[in-house]
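Regression test case RT-17, inverse folding.

Input:
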């Protein structure tokens, strides 16, 4: 889902000379915590994490996302016990040392990539708070609203370390920054997370995936779609079938997880199949102005989504 050591270990409080937007970096503090607790058992370390680290950063570790204190502590054990680290097909095995290594270089690389995003979208504004922290392997990038109309982007360095090798970082960050940009463009018209219909998830995730490829055209399909690594290969011959399956679910929100989340999938199709269908939709609608696509009003997106899925369901070939 990047400048130098000084930048890495400093908390950004204002745009830098390269016009990087401000962000909060919790990783230097966590690195100190990890060093101070290195001799504790995993469960004790997780409890200390909740009491001494997460409690200091309630905006990042919101109960809405991470659950109760007990749930937070259970999830935190995954940071400190290698046997509990999530396993994903195609992902390298990692431990806490790998996460800390990623943290030492990640924000400097982010600074560079964010500058390229702002070059592509000059009207991108620095209004959405951004934080780098530990997501306890729940997300790599998470754009949610702390309150209506107040979105916040949280990056999970642990999940980024697990899922995204260095060559994929530009596509990942461009994808997530585009979510911020699209929300900026649409404002209050943006569908709410809790009631997001399938047609909007199709557009929201598909367009961000397409933009990440347009800004990084040399990357391969696995480096754009991430999981599963062979998503495009699995779906190329099943596009019409997938379209017919998603068509009756477009206006509901119950099937969003099935089409867009890891660990869940429509019958006979790979997980996260909605990303590929949405990518095809964005490619189909692109007329050379990515910013214009970000501004498409939700009511128009709904019409376009229904029309495009019907187009695919009839067996029309849009796959090169």
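Golden output:
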């Amino acid at each position: 889902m990047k400048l130098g050591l000084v930048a890495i270990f400093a908390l950004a409080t204002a745009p830098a000379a390269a016009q990087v937007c401000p962000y909060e970096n919790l990783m230097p503090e966590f690195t100190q915590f990890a060093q101070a607790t290195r001799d504790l058992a995993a469960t004790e370390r997780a409890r200390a994490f909740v009491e001494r680290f997460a409690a200091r950063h309630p905006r990042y570790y919101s109960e809405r996302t991470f659950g109760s204190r007990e749930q937070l502590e259970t999830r935190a054990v995954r940071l400190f016990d290698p046997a509990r680290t999530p396993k994903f097909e195609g992902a390298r095995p990692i431990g806490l040392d790998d996460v800390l290594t990623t943290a030492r270089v990640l924000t400097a690389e982010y600074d560079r990539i964010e500058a390229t995003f702002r070059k592509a979208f000059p009207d991108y504004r620095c209004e959405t708070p951004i934080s780098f922290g530990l997501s306890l392997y729940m997300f790599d990038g998470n754009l949610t609203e702390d309150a209506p109309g107040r979105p916040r982007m949280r990056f999970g360095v642990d999940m980024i370390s697990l899922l995204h090798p260095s060559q994929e970082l530009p596509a990942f960050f461009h994808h997530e920054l585009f979510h911020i940009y699209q929300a900026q463009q649409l404002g209050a018209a943006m569908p709410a997370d809790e009631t997001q219909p399938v047609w909007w998830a199709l557009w929201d995730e598909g367009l961000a995936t397409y933009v990440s490829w347009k800004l990084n055209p040399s990357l391969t399909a696995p480096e754009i779609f991430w999981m599963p690594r062979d998503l495009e290969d699995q779906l190329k011959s099943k596009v019409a079938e997938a379209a017919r399956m998603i068509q009756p679910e477009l206006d509901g929100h119950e099937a969003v997880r099935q089409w867009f989340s890891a660990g869940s999938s429509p019958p006979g199709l790979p997980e996260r199949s909605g990303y590929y269908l949405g990518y095809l939709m964005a490619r189909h609608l692109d007329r050379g102005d990515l910013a214009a696509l970000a501004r498409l009003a939700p009511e128009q997106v709904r019409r376009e989504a229904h029309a495009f899925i019907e187009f695919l369901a009839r067996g029309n070939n849009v796959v090169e």
